[in-house]
Design goal:
This protein is α+β, with helices and mostly antiparallel strands and 290 residues long. It contains ten helices and 13 strands. The strands form three sheets. Strands 1, 2, 3, 4, 5 and 6 form a six-stranded antiparallel sheet that branches. The protein has a five-stranded mixed sheet with strand order 8-9-7-12-13, with helices on both faces. Strands 10-11 form a two-stranded antiparallel sheet.
């Protein structure tokens, strides 16, 4: 086996990517020189070490099952159903990589060979594209897609939260009297004011038109939610200046809380929307709770 690997080592070290060979027990039997540039280990540090040393803890159990299955009957493939997965470097950091694997039979024993490529650039591109897809282009805050993903994650994890549904009042005259450019600037001002009110774990979203939503993580107390709604109303309703134009808009707000008011995204948004409408009909700034 060692003689065979020695014969392969010169070839594998010529490759531009990191390469590791793993035996049937999941131990690393060979790593080429490029592993150090990718994950910080010298080849000697990895010899006879378990492959899980290079895998983030949360993925190890699943990876072990896949590796055993692959070594039994797998065909050469690119790992994962996404453009990249994550490797664990010597310092404990998670590095985005793409991995291609194949089985290798040497001296009557089955091994698996993995070629690993640094995918940090791909990760940056994915992050940029995702950010654009989840951002309202006019105001720069979140959009419906970002809200939907956040709600689904919170609901799956049974993490409590509240929503404030906002509908602007007296906004249409700005479009009608001064044009859509001024109307857009009004919406941008509202977006900035809402963004200034949320914590890092919260989210400000423009659903479309003059409707906005605030996601408030972990907030379920009606009294505190009313305080937040009052603060939002005061901020949004402050007078603004656009060039020589001075004006203000009003806002109606409805609140909904998970899990008290619903157990899915559609129901929670509808409840908050209905309470906003009730507040509007009653001539009050907000309606929270029953």
């Amino acid at each position: 086996m060692k003689d065979t690997l020695l014969a392969l080592s010169d070839l594998l070290n010529m490759l531009p990517d990191a390469v590791v060979i793993v035996d049937g027990k999941g131990r690393i039997t060979f790593a080429n020189a490029h592993i150090e540039g990718l994950l910080g280990y010298t080849p000697g540090e990895l010899e006879k070490q378990p492959l899980e040393r290079l895998i983030p803890k949360q993925y190890r159990a699943e990876h072990k099952v896949h590796l055993e299955r692959f070594q039994e009957n797998g065909q050469a493939m690119v790992m994962g159903d996404r453009p990249l997965i994550y490797g664990l470097d010597k310092s404990g950091g998670e590095i985005p990589i793409s991995v291609s694997i194949a089985n290798l039979d040497l001296d009557g024993e089955r091994f698996s060979i993995a070629v690993m490529h640094d995918s940090g650039e791909i990760q940056s591109e994915i992050t940029e594209v995702t950010s654009k897809a989840e951002t309202d282009l006019l105001t720069g805050i979140g959009n419906r897609l970002r809200l939907s993903q956040l709600l689904q994650t919170a609901i799956e994890k049974s993490r409590p939260f509240s929503l404030l549904y906002l509908d602007l009042e007296n906004f249409k005259p700005f479009n009608d009297n001064y044009g859509h450019e001024i109307g857009d600037k009004v919406l941008q001002i509202v977006g900035r004011r809402l963004q200034a009110l949320v914590r890092s774990e919260d989210l400000a979203v423009r659903l479309g038109g003059d409707e906005f939503v605030l996601y408030l993580d972990g907030l379920v107390d009606n009294g505190i939610l009313e305080q937040r709604a009052a603060a939002v109303g005061d901020s949004v309703s402050r007078r603004f200046h656009i060039g020589d134009l001075s004006g203000a808009v009003g806002v109606n707000i409805g609140g909904a809380t998970f899990p008290r008011d619903g157990d899915n995204e559609h129901e929670l948004i509808n409840v908050a929307d209905q309470k906003m409408y009730q507040a509007k009909q009653a001539g009050i700034p907000y309606k929270i709770g029953k």
